[in-house]
Amino acid sequence: MPSSCDPQYAPAGDVSAAMMLVDSRLKAIYDGRTEIDPERRRLDEQFTASLGPTGAQDLLDGVCTIIFMYMKWLRLACEEHDKDVVEYVVPNLVTTMLRMSRSIRPAAVPTMAGLAIAAGTGLSPSLWRQQYGDWTRDEMNALEATAFLLAEVINRITDDEDFATRLVTDALTSADRS
């Protein structure tokens, strides 16, 4: 019997816009910028504010879709090496997020761990999160960081700084052709 959190019931959201935000963070880090440029942050905030309530929800769903895609890829990669994705990925994700205390409140970390675990076990992160009410403001940076950190894990595994971005863009291109 399918779960109410089965991905087939989840909205994909605005994956392109979500990918743009994640890719922008990846590029900044790879270019050696450890701090987020205040101008870039302002532009990102302006962009998300311009989306309105429906667009903002689409962006949230898009980030959750990316998290699902990344965790699915990681699960398959882990299974090839007889590893469990939750055991391999989630502890490092949590530890890294707890170290990011200036931008991520510790109270948001368990929710992000739950999102990653839900995705790693084949559930929709957005539908899993929906069970617990509306998103909070404190979860926004944590959600973005979760997608970014998972992308970084994938890029390190593949030794390719663009692999995680290509993974999503190739899936979008394939979906457009279907």
From TrEMBL:
Record protein name field: Uncharacterized protein
What is the source species?
Streptomyces nymphaeiformis
